[in-house]
Recover the amino acids of this structure.
């Protein structure tokens, strides 16, 4: 069983001297009694850390996305670029939105910005959003009935990923996800740390909510650029405040050629995955060795499509393209830049 392999409860590591840390969060927050739509609150921040106790704040961004019962954007706004985002209303997060982003705001993707990270990740956050109800008021099925929408777990998923092949214990006979065979463990809150800068502050959420969290640290080591990345999907448990249900959790350590950004080595750690068969996913990342970080966003969906990869690991591997943008920030790390103190952490 996956339960024997899963290890929930990862804590954020201390920031390294002479490193850059990017954190991002997408919180899908639902309101009981008004369940046909929900709001995704996205936040992201970049910090440089040199030898001093306080890091350099490079940048921060936020987005607010309202999603209707049809899965389309009712509204989309940002603290950074409010104007162009209004054009995306009515679109679905995912391929439709990403294609429009490439046309309307190509520089965001080209420069691997915080805003691009938040917009690009709306697809995964929206896909996982109903997991907010997994341990709440009758579960996802009861939520779907109250909202008058189809139950996502009833869809056929054969061929979607390496776990969803005919005969797999991850599938029912009719090709749906076999949740009875899945392990979604309870884990402690993942962001507790004595370091006030370990992660940015999340939005307050007392009701049903689902979170997608990311952290990526980069630093130089023996002439190579090292990236230590972490990813987690989790949801609130009704009546609980100190634990959450964890659906997916991965860690990655990757080494890139500092001059070319070619991937030289990669190690994937699966902390929490729903099925035993999912734990075969880490080895799939090796196909990317030798590829350039700047290519990963477009390359991963092609190289690891369907049963060749894991949907959630693929998403994390795509996000490693952020290393290209963060490398420039690491090169600019200088002792005379403005630092932030604990009291000024962004809300």
């Amino acid at each position: 069983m996956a339960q024997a392999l899963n290890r929930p409860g990862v804590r954020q590591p201390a920031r390294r001297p002479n490193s850059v840390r990017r954190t991002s969060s997408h919180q899908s927050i639902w309101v009981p009694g008004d369940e046909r739509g929900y709001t995704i609150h996205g936040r992201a921040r970049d910090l440089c850390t040199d030898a001093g106790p306080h890091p350099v704040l490079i940048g921060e961004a936020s987005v607010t996305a309202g999603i209707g019962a049809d899965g389309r954007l009712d509204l989309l706004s940002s603290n950074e670029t409010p104007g162009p985002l209004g054009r995306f209303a009515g679109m679905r997060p995912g391929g439709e939105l990403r294609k429009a982003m490439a046309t309307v705001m190509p520089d965001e993707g080209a420069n691997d910005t915080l805003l691009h990270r938040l917009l690009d990740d709306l697809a995964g956050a929206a896909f996982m959003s109903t997991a907010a109800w997994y341990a709440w008021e009758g579960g996802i099925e009861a939520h779907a009935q109250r909202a008058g929408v189809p139950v996502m777990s009833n869809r056929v998923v054969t061929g979607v990923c390496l776990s969803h092949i005919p005969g797999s214990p991850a599938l029912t006979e009719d090709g749906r996800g076999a949740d009875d065979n899945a392990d979604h463990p309870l884990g402690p809150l993942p962001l507790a740390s004595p370091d006030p800068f370990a992660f940015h502050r999340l939005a307050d959420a007392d009701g049903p909510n689902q979170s997608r969290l990311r952290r990526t640290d980069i630093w130089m080591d023996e002439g190579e650029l090292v990236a230590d990345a972490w990813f987690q999907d989790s949801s609130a448990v009704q009546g609980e405040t100190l634990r959450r249900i964890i659906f997916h959790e991965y860690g990655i350590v990757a080494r890139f050629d500092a001059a070319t950004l070619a991937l030289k080595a990669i190690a994937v750690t699966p902390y929490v995955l729903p099925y035993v068969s999912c734990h075969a996913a880490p080895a799939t990342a090796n196909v990317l060795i030798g590829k350039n970080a700047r290519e990963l966003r477009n390359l991963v969906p092609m190289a690891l499509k369907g049963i060749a990869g894991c949907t959630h690991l693929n998403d994390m591997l795509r996000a490693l393209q952020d290393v290209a943008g963060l490398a420039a920030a690491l090169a600019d790390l200088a002792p005379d830049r403005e630092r932030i103190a604990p009291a000024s952490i962004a809300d």
